[in-house]
């Protein structure tokens, strides 16, 4: 049985998993558009809000030449190109968010609109339905649109590719999400200071199919490992492999409790990732008890290093069997209980 490596996460699927996968589904897993689970079931990845926005923008720009557009070739941040269904005519583009086999994605099916007019260069303006920050944060200023750098890079590249397809040098683009304000109010955005819409984000360009079955697979991987690194996100997963090459790195997302429960028989357990989810897991009031709205804002403040040391000291004392390693977005170790 040939070895398959997930091109998105770099995870090498065990041969026993591959053996259970139907032959017609192998190519979908190899392409990165789906993940393989331990019983051979294949779950489709969806597209992030950033990828969907990029598809609408491409369709708007490409249709400025008079052609009708039905799909947008989007270069995802993970390096994969995806033909995302879209609709473009006369400078107006739309795309609906496909969430794959992620059953509880609140933004599933939300529609992105983009309008474009010919210009000398490419400019993108966030309009109605795109959330905005109500206060300064370590990465954004008050009033900034809630569009992450990887998502914006994908959108700008899509705009440039769309203009190239239309034979024009540039376009002025307005990105809107008609249902964004209503959906945004049902997300965590108001709690982190983003109002008026949803966030346009996406580190890899894909939405992971985090359903209950995949959660079981996560726990199964942890319980069968002798040394494991539990990570909370893609950044943590990437650097965990570099920091702890002798450990099995497993992405648990927000399911830290379930992951730690599954790790009871492991000889070595490390919890590694960005500070937000990890510190809030051990102390939900990490930030608020110190007068900050989010952990990210606390850590970026002058009081951040002292607060991090205090929290890690508490964790080391109360959970001596768990090593906690906090990293920054560029992989620098900010704190370690070891």
List the helices and strands and how they pair.
Blueprint: E1 4-5, E2 12-13, H1 15-20, H2 23-31, E3 34-36, E4 42-44, E5 46-47, H3 49-62, E6 69-75, E7 81-89, E8 92-96, E9 111-119, E10 123-126, E11 129-130, E12 132-133, H4 149-166, E13 170-176, H5 180-184, E14 194-195, E15 197-198, E16 206-207, H6 212-223, E17 227-231, H7 234-243, E18 248-251, H8 256-262, E19 268-273, H9 275-282, H10 295-300, H11 304-318, E20 323-327, E21 333-336
Parallel strand pairs: 10-13, 11-15, 17-18, 17-19, 19-20
Antiparallel strand pairs: 1-2, 3-4, 5-16, 6-7, 7-8, 8-9, 9-13, 12-14, 20-21
Helix pairs in contact: 3-4, 6-8
How would you characterize the overall build of this protein?
The protein has 338 residues and is an alpha/beta fold. It folds into 3 domains: 41 residues, CbiD-like (2-Layer Sandwich), CATH 3.30.1990; 160 residues, CbiD-like; 127 residues, 3-Layer(aba) Sandwich (Rossmann fold), CATH 3.40.50. Helices cover 33% and strands 26% of the residues. The protein contains 11 helices and 21 strands. Strands 6-7-8-9-13-10 form a 6-stranded mixed sheet, covered by helices on one side. The two termini are 40 Å apart. The model has no long low-confidence stretch (mean pLDDT 93).
């Amino acid at each position: 049985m040939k070895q398959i490596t997930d091109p998105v996460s770099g995870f090498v699927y065990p041969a026993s998993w591959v053996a259970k996968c139907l032959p017609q589904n192998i190519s979908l897993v190899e392409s990165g558009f789906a993940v393989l689970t331990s019983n051979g079931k294949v779950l489709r990845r969806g597209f992030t809000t950033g990828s969907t926005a990029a598809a609408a923008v491409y369709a708007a720009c490409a249709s400025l030449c008079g052609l009708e557009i039905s799909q947008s070739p989007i270069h995802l941040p993970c390096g994969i190109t995806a033909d995302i269904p879209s609709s473009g005519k006369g400078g107006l583009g739309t795309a609906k968010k496909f969430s794959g086999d992620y059953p509880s994605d609140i933004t599933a099916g939300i529609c992105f609109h983009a309008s474009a007019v010919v210009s000398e260069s490419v400019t993108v303006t966030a309009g109605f339905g795109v959330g905005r920050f109500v206060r300064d944060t370590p990465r954004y200023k008050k009033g900034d649109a809630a569009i992450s750098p990887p998502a914006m890079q994908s959108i700008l590249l899509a705009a440039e590719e769309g203009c190239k397809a239309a034979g024009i040098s540039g376009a002025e683009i307005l990105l809107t999400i008609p249902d964004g304000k209503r959906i945004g109010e049902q997300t965590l955005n108001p709690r982190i200071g983003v109002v008026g819409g949803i966030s346009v984000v996406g580190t890899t360009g894909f939405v992971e199919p985090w359903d209950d079955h995949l959660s079981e697979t996560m726990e199964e991987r942890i319980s069968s490992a002798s040394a494991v690194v539990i990570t909370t996100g893609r950044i943590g997963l990437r650097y965990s492999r570099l920091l702890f090459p002798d450990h099995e790195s497993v992405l648990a997302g927000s399911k830290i409790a379930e992951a730690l429960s599954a790790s009871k028989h492991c000889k070595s357990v490390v919890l590694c990732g960005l500070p937000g989810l990890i510190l809030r897991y051990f102390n939900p009031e990490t930030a608020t008890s110190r007068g900050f709205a989010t952990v990210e804002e606390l850590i970026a403040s002058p009081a951040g290093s002292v607060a991090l040391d205090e929290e890690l000291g508490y964790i080391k004392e109360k959970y001596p069997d768990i090593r906690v390693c906090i990293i920054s977005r560029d992989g620098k170790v900010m704190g370690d209980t070891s």
